[in-house]
Amino acid sequence: MTAPEKKMLQPVFIALQANNDTMPIIEAIRQDNPNAVVHEYPAMVKIDCPGRLVIKRASVEEHLGRDFDLREIQINMISIAGNVDESEDEFTLEWRTA
Amino acid sequence: MAAEGNVKPAKKLSLKENYALLTRGLGWEPSYEKHEEIFRNISFEGIKIHDWEKWEDPFRLTMDAYWKYQGEKERKLYAIVDAFQQNNGQFNVTDARYVQALKIFINGITELEYDSHRGFNMLAREFPGVGPRIAAQMQSLDELRHATTQIHTISQYAKYFTGMNEFPYQFDRAWYLSIPKSFFEDAVTSGPFEFIVAISFAFEYVLTNLAFMPWMSGAAFNGDMATVSFGFSAQSDEARHMTLGIEVIKFLLEQDPANVPLVQKWIDKWFWRGYRLLSLLATMMDYMLPKRVMAWNEAWEIYYEQNGGALFADLARYGIKPPKRAPETIAEKGHVAHQMWSVFYANRDAVGFQMWLPSNEEMDWMSEKYPDTFDKYYRPRYEYWREMEKAGTPFKNTTLPQLCQVCQWPCLFTEPDDPTTLSLRETEYKGETFHMCSDGCKDIFDDTPEKFVHAWLPVHQIYQGNCFLPDVDPTAPGFNPMYEALRYMGIKPGVDGGDFKGSADATNWEKWTSRPANIHEGAYTDAVRDTSNPSDAARKAI
Hints:
The complex is a heterodimer. Chain A is of the alpha+beta class. Helix content of chain A is 22%, strand content 39%. Chain A starts with 10 loop residues before the first strand and ends with a strand. Chain B is mainly α. Chain B has a single domain, classed as Orthogonal Bundle (Ribonucleotide Reductase, subunit A), CATH 1.10.620. Helices cover 57% and strands 4% of the residues of chain B. Chain B has a two-stranded parallel ribbon with strand order 1-6. A two-stranded antiparallel ribbon of chain B has the order 2-3. In chain B, a hairpin with a 2-residue loop joins strand 4 and strand 5.
């Protein structure tokens, strides 16, 4: 855990329940975060991404086919790691060291 | 009032504007009472806050959204709980050993949710800033919701299985439940800043993922749709609490450089206390899930070493270092589950859940998951105990263990660099000797001895004769102190705990489900259907 000379991107993550509500969210995350790695566990999906992960409302709406309020994610969110920033359009997780 | 049809609808406020109106516009400064008379507990810890307005909740959750989404979570959860109860879900879990883990949950964890509700209520009163007050108030409601949903869900199991119907009573009395109880009461009797660093940051941000991610995923894997549903429903609030935790730390560190060493000290203390408490999960994951998702050491690597590493790398810019005793937790990760299970097994007549020795299948899994430790240190012990069981002389502790003055675990852990030597520490304070399980707990005692010298240590209290019901006469012939102490604790001796094989839970399970109570050992009773040899009628039907 000592700070290395060359910067290594620390992983952020979001974990969501594995259900029908979250499928379009997971698809949107995959689309907008090419470095995201999706781990599937029983009943749960954990998505790791180096440095920064963003969920875009527009992308979720595209996969979902209806209007989406990003705060709806709260219903199915299990856990997160990283500094959160949320606006109407984007939900971001980020490590500042990254 | 303007005539209808004459008013343009107000422009919809953005999330940021909405949150700003709630947290900046609704507070006020007192005019006829002194500020320090109203907020009495915010200065004695030494934390310096210059501007409470700098606090911001990144979720920017407003009350209308809070009630809306919490209501939706509840409806969803109760739909599942109803379905579970209507469909005899309690019999659809892998086997009856799994249910023993729920006894630990309801007796030892649910009360922490309620204590947390109380703690955050106090913060909502004590913090002068409106932003943190609202966040604390929401969290206080969340924690109450967690306690009630857990009690409601597990009540279905309590109708069929032993050891779950006395949970608030047991929590205040059972010797091993003083571990979680003393943890939270230490936090709640601290100042508000230490409490929020302890619970929101060290416990919730750094550690509770272990409880609610791999363990709950394991509950799902073992067919317990009720537990996984309350677990994930609670955890959806937890994601917000964790954000509060990291915001608290950043806020305190940014407010004044003098806060940094205080925060570091609390991180060191509460990481260690939280780790000691949560390593109970090591046994729940490795031994009590008949079908396993991941081992404790893997979970520790993912959720502490990797994610905790990222977190503390982020906080390094404030001068915060990883918790002082983190290296010990990494050194212990291949041992802790096995050492705890051994102690519970040896003391099985004095606990409220039933115990068993791991099967061959489970030991092979542990050899694979713990290649450096299991075969060398723990397999031989279990095989020896198995021989003793077969010989009709099962191993049991007949005395109670020495407890750590700080974490209240039995001193069962070994030296981090030597798994063959028990780790024992002691400190002399005002002419008395106090015993600790580790350097981590000794650090805590030595820093604030006055807080721990009066700790109510159950084993000491039992031996001093303070743990008997009023109807007990210790001079009566046939007086059995262990039996009476268990009754005092709300544990039915020989029913709630003891050996799993032959227990009411195992026998009833086979009677009610016709399936083995332990999937690895086959049937204990004739109630299990024998499908190996179909009847003539069944054969004809094929």
